[in-house]
Q: What sequence folds into this?
């Protein structure tokens, strides 16, 4: 059975936070975060960085034993990004779990 160890979980939270910081933090905290970097989640090089079967973020961690992914603010990702993410995850492990969490952010739109 695959187990997500605390170190890997912490690293994933860091990666997740870096990817989403410009969409989530300003709304929650109401501050000016205009100096934070933004990510075009549909950019080909970014999609390749995340999904590349040989060295992408998703396959890399799955080959180390991660058996699932949790997307806390899935509604902040474009549908095309989520479709590609699912394809990559399932290609690496057909039984991998993907949890998409929708919360207050969805109500604000």
A:
């Amino acid at each position: 059975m695959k187990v997500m160890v605390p170190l890997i979980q912490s690293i994933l939270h860091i990666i997740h936070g870096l990817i989403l910081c410009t969409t989530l933090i300003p709304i929650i905290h109401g501050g000016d975060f205009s100096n934070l970097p933004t990510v075009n989640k549909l950019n080909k090089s970014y999609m390749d960085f995340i999904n590349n079967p040989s060295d992408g973020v998703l396959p890399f961690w799955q080959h180390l034993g991660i058996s699932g992914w949790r997307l806390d603010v899935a509604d902040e990702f474009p549908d095309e990004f989520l479709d590609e993410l699912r394809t990559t995850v399932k290609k690496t492990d057909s039984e991998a779990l993907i949890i998409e969490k929708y919360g207050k952010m969805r109500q604000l739109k």
Q: What stands out?
A: The two ends are 39 Å apart (CA to CA). Residues 20-28 have pLDDT under 50 and may be disordered. Residues 26 and 33 are 6 Å apart (CA to CA).
